[in-house]
Amino acid sequence: xxxxxxxxxxxxxxxxxxxxxxxxxxxxxxxxxxxxxxxxxxxxxxxxxxxxxxxxxxxxxxxxxxxxxxxxxxxxxxxxxxxxxxxxxxxxxxxxxxxxxxxxxxxxxxxxxxxxxxxxxxxxxxxxxxxxxxxxxxxxxxxxxxxxxxxxxxxxxxxxxxxxxxxxxxxxxxxxxxxxxxxxxxxxxxxxxxxxxxxxxxxxxxxxxxxxxxxxxxxxxxxxxxxxxxxxxxxxxxxxxxxxxxxxxxxxxxxxxxxxxxxxxxxxxxxxxxxxxxxxxxxxxxxxxxxxxxxxxxxxxxxxxxxxxxxxxxxxxxxxxxxxxxxxxxxxxxxxxxxxxxxxxxxxxxxxxxxxxxxxxxxxxxxxxxxxxxxxxxxxxxxxxxxxxxxxxxxxxxxxxxxxxxxxxxxxxxxxxxxxxxxxxxxxxxxxxxxxxxxxxxxxxxxxxxxxxxxxxxxxxxxxxxxxxxxxxxxxxxxxxxxxxxxxxxxxxxxxxxxxxxxxxxxxxxxxxxxxxxxxxxxxxxxxxxxxxxxxxxxxxxxxxxxxxxxxxxxxxxxxxxxxxxxxxxxxxxxxxxx
Length: 579
Hints:
The protein is an alpha/beta fold. The protein folds into two domains: 2-333, ABC transporter type 1, transmembrane domain (ABC transporter transmembrane region fold, Up-down Bundle), CATH 1.20.1560.10; 350-572, P-loop containing nucleotide triphosphate hydrolases (Rossmann fold, 3-Layer(aba) Sandwich). It contains 17 helices and twelve strands. It has helices at 2-31, 36-68, 76-121, 124-128, 132-174, 176-184, 186-223, 225-230, 234-286, 292-333, 390-398, 442-446, 455-464, 469-472, 490-504, 520-533, 546-549, and strands at 350-361, 364-374, 379-384, 405-412, 417-419, 428-431, 440-441, 480-481, 508-512, 538-542, 554-559, 562-565. The strands form three sheets. Strands 6-9-10-3-11-12 form a six-stranded mixed beta sheet, with helices on both faces. The chain has a four-stranded antiparallel beta sheet with strand order 2-1-4-5, with helices on one face. Strands 7-8 form a two-stranded antiparallel ribbon. Helix 2 packs antiparallel against helix 3 (76-121), helix 7 runs parallel beside helix 10 (292-333) and helix 13 packs across helix 15.
């Protein structure tokens, strides 16, 4: 039984090791494919830089021996060789810096672009579980760490390894026993680095999670600045940020302490190697067994061996941080892109149908056994309590989410039918709740609905949405809106959003509380315009207002996750007082 338990634990550890170490390395290696030639060029210059360091030690030995020899003489060829080797070293150092910077920028921005496209093209539901601030942190800080691994960490590690190998080989030629003794102190230091490195990697991931939470909270509080002011939350927001900062400082302190332990343990061990080389050289020099040049060579080569060995552990914390960041990035890359199928040729007005649809969020039933038929050209109202799942119905018809059971589909008057999905969104125009305008000009916002819309078309759509105020603005369509539609009121932003949807000219239009910020007269005017200008358009109006629903042909209620198709909405007409 004990053996079986140990075997299970070993298998679990092996899977964890593969997930946390090999999987990130494989992922970053795949991402580096477009940059392999630049990486090879950078590694080549690093090899020359490593070789030139050992070559300098050999040339120095020659010059010192020539000068120390009885009747020593000046060695012009040796001086020329030294100048040449030094020039190669300086040139390679400069070229390495240039190539590293170029590779870092191309890799970082290329990865951000790729992952951004992956997120944008992924399904709405998987992406919605991530906070925007967290995703931005991954696309910035984590992408920087991953780029450093390719442009800095990998070349440095390769250069240091080459320096160790080459210097060790040359030292073996002169004094094999000394070379082995110097190298022997390396494994204990490396093991200590690996032991502490795993802890550092976990702390780095915690720091990144803290940074994501920190940035997310700042983004939300700044985005809702008016709410913060209205509820006098300034003190609370400042205190929350201060607490997050304290937590970050605590994590950083722990990581710095572990990094310090790595440096102390490894530097202490590796300093023994230098002392050994120096002592061995002094001993042999005193006995006349070596020359002054050989003594300088011992010290130089020992530094070439010890220097990289000492430097390698300092790369361990960077490597651990890189693994944590790459793991967070690979989560974004693992998001599944929406599969675009072939769109059916739906013609004329398009209807929508739900057949025994069931859907849950976090194990809670939002829609259950829902059946709904919106005939082509019908104007239907959808009502229900707040949180009943009305917006979920809209997302089903948009193909943003798929039902667990049943089918959501669009169809035309001929009976041609297609399940909702990414490819059917061209048949749907959508006006969501709230202010959904982008920063930029009104013209740019309207062209989200139709990229080829002319000014005349835009103005007609604005008139239909009762947004004629745009004509009176000093810059008209070129009026620049700030974040969240700043520079216009909430009601004006809703009217621009309606105009944007009308420019799409889709056969199915969904209005999700799209007129909640408008007065009754403006709301009714917009609905009259819609009925007149979109006579053949199927319209789904999600609203609480009975006056608005009274303009629909029929009405449906969502209650307890069940859709109930009610009698004609025309019978529910009410006056302005709601009586």
